Every structure is written in structure tokens, then in C-alpha cells.
Automatic annotation (TrEMBL):
It comes from the Bacteria. The chain crosses the membrane at residues 162-182, 188-208. Keywords: Membrane, Transmembrane, Transmembrane helix. Residues 250-261 have a biased composition (Gly residues). The keyword Membrane applies. Residues 238-261 are annotated as: Disordered. Residues 238-249 have a biased composition (Low complexity). This is TIGR04222 domain-containing membrane protein.
Length: 261
């Protein structure tokens, strides 16, 4: 039997019925998801919030659930007044990790415990496409958000091959035109040959250097501490007029220290 808090969370609506572009649609667009998958993530986000209050230990979301959390934080009135004040009765904060191996280990442990508590308290297996194993959840990755309607995501190796192939194709006619100079051993004019060769070598070196650079978004796991403060603390950000103007940060993780009602 579901407890009262879970029932309140499940009935808490993130999509405004009159909004032409509701929360679930924005979440789907910002992450390149289908609307159906976005709605499933929202269900798991609400379950995560419930676990933060009921698990009895710190919890950490999956990346997909964390994206829903980030976006909800931007809807300041819905988050602080509606959910924290009206449903939870206390604040649920989200902040970035301090970084380092120690912090990484802490969030990985919290995530494992979150998965265990989910199975125990909900009596079912987690959806694997939203809650992957910890080794997948915390594997190193470099990501950037893009608008899939106006941009293509092309692997760097493909771009390097195209650049290299295009450079060689462009240089071959030049080299062919210099072949008579090579035969005549006219070293003064061999610059006609050496310059395009040097250009190809430069392109190769540049591609190798860029390919070796690791990229990160500078954001690791976020953390939050659920407290036993009163409802007034939940409304600390409610004075904002309209949207806060923030967007999903793409942080890799998050955690909460939850508590009971």
C-alpha cells in the first residue's frame, strides 16, 4: 500500500494543462528524448524524491532523473512552493560536488544504495533505460547539449578522416603539377612540392593533438541536503518573478540526505 507522501507526489502535476510547451515537452527537447520517455523519466523523478524522504540514507539519481531534477529547479514556484512547500513540507536542495576521487566514491555508494532501496521499497526492478548499473552511471564521459533540430552530432574521428582525406585529395593535383620539377631536380622550385606536403603533415598533427584532448563539462555529481526545516525554508527562492532563466546544467550526479515527515 502506498503511503500518503507517495500518493501526493504522484498526483503533483509538473505539466501545466494550459501551457503550449509544458514541462515534459521541454525536458524531451532539451535531452533529445521522445515525449513518452520524458513522461516515464518524470515518474521516476517523483519516485526518487520520495526515496530522498523515505529511504533513511542519502540517495543519488540516475543521469536521466537528474536532468528532470535540474529542469524542475528552474520552475522555481513549482519546485519550491508547489513540491517542497506543498507536498514535502521541507526543502530539497541540489548542489554541485566538490570533485575528487573521494566525492566520486561517495556518490557511487549512494547510487548503489538508492538502487537497493528502490527494489526493496517499491518491490520491483528499476527500468534499466532510466536507472543503469553504477558502472555505467559513473563511467567517464564528455557531453555537451545541442539542439538536434539545427545541429548534427558527428564523432571526432569522422571529422578527422574527412579533413585528412580532403587535404590529400586537394594536394594530389598540386603534387602532380610539380612532378617535372622533381625529375629535373630543380631544388629551388621544389617549394612547389614541399609546401603542400607540409600542409598535409600539419593537418595530421593537428588532428592527432585535438583527438588526444579529453573534454568535460566541468561538472560532476551534484549534492543536496534534505533538512528538517520548516516550509518557510522551501520558499526561499519563491520570490523570483517568472522563470529563473537557468537551463539544465548537464551535471553528472546528485545526492540528497532525506528524512521523514
Amino acid at each position: 500500500m502506498k503511503d500518503e507522501l507517495l500518493l501526493r507526489l504522484e498526483s503533483f502535476e509538473l505539466d501545466e494543462p494550459s501551457a503550449p510547451f509544458p514541462f515534459s515537452a521541454r525536458l524531451a527537447r532539451e535531452n533529445g528524448w521522445s515525449r513518452e520517455f520524458s513522461r516515464r523519466v518524470i515518474v521516476e523523478y517523483k519516485r526518487f524524491v520520495w526515496l530522498a524522504m523515505r529511504a533513511g540514507h542519502p540517495v543519488t539519481p540516475s543521469e536521466e532523473v537528474d536532468e528532470a531534477w535540474h529542469l524542475h529547479l528552474c520552475y522555481t514556484r513549482s519546485y519550491w512552493d508547489g513540491m517542497c512547500g506543498g507536498v514535502l513540507g521541507k526543502p530539497l536542495h541540489h548542489g554541485p560536488t566538490e570533485g575528487g576521487e573521494k566525492e566520486d566514491a561517495i556518490f557511487a555508494d549512494w547510487y548503489e544504495r538508492t538502487l537497493e532501496s528502490y527494489r526493496r521499497l517499491f518491490g520491483e526492478e528499476l527500468p534499466a533505460d532510466i536507472w543503469p548499473p553504477a558502472e555505467i552511471r559513473f563511467r567517464p564521459a564528455s557531453s555537451r547539449k545541442i539542439d538536434a533540430t539545427t545541429h548534427w552530432a558527428v564523432p571526432k574521428r569522422v571529422i578527422k578522416r574527412v579533413l585528412l582525406g580532403g587535404s590529400i585529395a586537394a594536394v594530389l593535383p598540386v603534387l602532380a603539377g610539380c612532378s617535372h620539377l622533381i625529375a629535373a631536380a630543380d631544388f629551388g622550385d621544389l617549394l612547389c612540392f614541399l609546401i603542400p606536403v607540409a600542409f598535409v603533415v600539419w593537418i595530421i598533427v593537428l588532428a592527432v593533438k585535438k583527438g588526444g584532448k579529453g573534454g568535460g563539462n566541468g561538472c560532476g555529481g551534484g549534492g543536496c541536503g534534505g533538512t528538517s526545516s520548516g516550509i518557510s525554508s522551501c520558499g526561499s527562492s519563491a520570490g523570483d518573478s517568472g522563470s529563473s532563466g537557468c537551463s539544465s546544467s548537464g551535471c553528472g550526479g546528485g545526492g540528497c540526505g532525506g528524512g521523514g515527515d
